[in-house]
Amino acid sequence: PYMPINSAAIKAECTTRPDASKNPLIKQVVRKPLEEVLRYIEAHPCPPKPDPIKNISTSINNSLTPSKSSPVINNGSPTIPGKRSYEQHNGMD
């Protein structure tokens, strides 16, 4: 897989064999009759999907979702310049 490919040699070989490029080898797909497919589907049905688990207690559901903590407000000068707040634009702070 790590050998270099000689594209010039491949192009030269393709030009010497024009019949092969006109008729590519495509394997015909053999399809089964519809009745046979239906018989297979009837004999092998999909397993039923399990019902979702319904918990009556809401305290369990609340403990599974992480609570959002309040963002940290830094009134000092930021170390990295970023978006300025309303107060910084208007000089109220």
UniProtKB/TrEMBL annotation:
Quote the biased-composition stretches of kind Basic and acidic residues, using this chain's numbering.
Answer: 84-93
Origin, by domain of life? Eukaryota
**InterPro entries associated with the record:** MTA1_R1
Specify where the region named Disordered lies, as residue ranges: 44-93
User: Which residues fall in a compositionally biased region of kind Polar residues?
Assistant: 55-78
- UniProt domain Metastasis-associated protein MTA1 R1: residue ranges: 1-40
Identification of the protein by name: Putative metastasis associated 1
What is the species listed in this Swiss-Prot or TrEMBL entry?
A: Pipa carvalhoi
